[in-house]
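Records of this kind hold a single protein each, on a pair of labelled lines. With that in mind, the following record should read easily:
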Amino acid sequence: METTSSEDEESLKDNNVDLNDDNIEHHMTFDVSSQLADADNLFSSQQQCSENSEPFVGMEFESEESAKLFYMAYASRVGFSVRISKSRRSRNDESIIMRRFVCSKEGFHLKKGKFDDGKKKRKRATIREGCNAMIEVIQKYYGRWVVTKLVKEHNHVVAAPSRVLYVAPESYGNTDPYLGMEFSSHEAAQTFYYAYASRVGFDVRIRLSRRSTRDESFVMRRFVCTKEGFSPYEDNYDESKKKRNRTPTREGCKAMFEVIKKDYDKWIVSKLVLEHTHVLAVAPSKVHYIQSDSEVVVLAKSGALNREKPAAPNTKTHLGKFDDFSDIPSNDNGFRTEVSNTAQTVFGLEDTQNLLEYFKRMQAENPTYYYTFQVDKNNCLTHAFWADAKAKMAYYCFGDAVKIDTSFKNNKNMVPFVMFTGVNHHLQSVNFGFGLLTDESEASFVWLFENWIIAMCGRHPVSLSTDYHEAIGSAISRVFPETRHRIYKWHILNKCNEKLSDVYVTRNAFKQEFEKCINQSETADIFESSWISLLEKYDLGENSWLQFLFSIRQKWVPVYVKDAFTAEISDTQKPESLINFFEKYFNNKTSLLVLASLLEQAMVGWYERESLEDLATSYTRPILRTPSNMLKQVADIYTRTVFDIFQEEFIESLGYFVDKIEDGVVSKFSVTNNDDILTLFTVTYNFSNKRTSCSCCKFETAGILCRHILRVFLTVDVRALPECYILKRWTKDAKNGFVLDECVRYNELYRDAMKYAKEGSTSEEVYTLAKSALQIGFTQVLAAKKSIVNQCTM
């Protein structure tokens, strides 16, 4: 049952989030939404809604976000600033069901105690003046948001603020518009053109729109310069009256930008005029609308994000740089000694306190939220790790193959950020937690990995994929001795373009032969002999870079890692990263509170994307390209994305032919493509248990059968996919069976165990008693666990 709409102040939460404040030195503003709505047409009901719509009681919106942006647009036009004052959440699912937006001058500031220290103090401008202007929207049972309360009058002077600056999405950068340009939505087109206008120096308004006669959705939008057309002539003009000459707002400017919706759901620029009839000038602004993919960040005056961070005593304040092959260490100890001295404090005391308050608030809302941190002697943050309940659930279901993204560390101006990710059953990226590190030492990564695995209930991954870094490799060996550590091949080859640039230029054939040796060697012996021959042929045996790559070949050359499960079905599949988003909008002056909040909102987009694909997989059936019993079987089991990949392998298998090279209960087959008879794959098939394997090792790496095995299945008349070759992580039921209580119990026991160890090690006598009690307790736990298992199997 949801809370009622009556004035229940106890159930309301005071947000106090300014959306645009003239006194920005006193307030920092931020908010995040899933998309940038059309600020002038924010609701799509049948009611008349012009560019200058006024709010009224009973007005309806499709979402809370639409209501917020409409009121912000109205406030910008009238001339006041807005903040979120109150919210109400549902008792069912804690979702927001009521929002109250107020003028930033609502309420009064608390009076400070009077004191006189003999100093003259500057009288500060009053920010709050008791203004009652507000709008309140409530979500109704049919999903729409309705204005239930409205006060339009202000008790202070209002004046239109300066022009709004729109920052272009990452994918467009500083691109100029052109005919045929494509956008995913009309909102994206609007954001792009507004950003272009801000950069060039003119203002934009919506001139014309057209809706579909079928569903009333937009099919055309035309944006024009605000100086388009001409100001109307006054018929009753009286020359005898002296009037102040007003600057004409319309000058007949022809500049315009029109987009239309095509059948394939893309918006195309169909008309475009870039020339203006007036002088262009870029004006500063106070509000920034930033869009990146599905996130929109509203920041009042970006300079407010900067904060001064006290440097640690006798140190410089910098981020430190992750080793990116820039210096190949001569020995491990020398490297670790060097980097261990680079630890620096980069986060100030206020920043640390704000982030920890954020963590506490998140954990208070959900006890399964996990965070841990380290501070230096000045109580300034040096390390942190955090993960929410959804990250834990994702790890439980898809934590067999984990990728560690440290690409943020390649830029010394970036926040020292580490991200744990994987792929779900739709091949979408999922988050397993975030970390902050202020140095690149092995000890720091050991701390991070140990706390990460605690948060993930102690389950170690099958594989960990990373960029190359000596300290990361050493930490993984210590914390995850049974986990396969793989270094990205594409990262190695990209670095080769730099390290071997002179060789690539002077010896044209080397690069092609080099990559063929890496990618096409079927066995380790073949690779090593080919490598040695290649270096001898080009006289590169003394090249230190190539010597180094050979020394770590077990971690990056495909023939050595193809038996390690990495959940990478495609050779071109790369880990999804937020690096572009962060490089553009975040640096080492970004507030940690803003960083954590935006990460939270970015993950909301990932979760929503997964939910939409779950829904589509549940209620749609894939199209079979051939009437195969096996395809019919897996169509009901696999997700749409994985089924499409499996079906492609099945269709491609029809282009191969098979020769039996060994007969018996365990038979061997040679599988060859009709177009490439020189490339052979060896498939082994056991007729007794229907177990099979292929020299390409696709199943071992990706968890989905290759075309070579599927071709052999057709030969030996296997019409249904054996259950042992259907990994749950790729099925529609991949997330079934997760119990969050398991993680909660694990974390609680771990904390108690740490307290137990601390108290039990205080003296030899106490240690002996603690050890004995622990052994007895452990025996009882194992006995209870065995008894429960026996009862379940009876």
User: Anything to note?
Assistant: Residues 1-51, 161-167, 283-324, 326-345 have pLDDT under 50 and may be disordered.
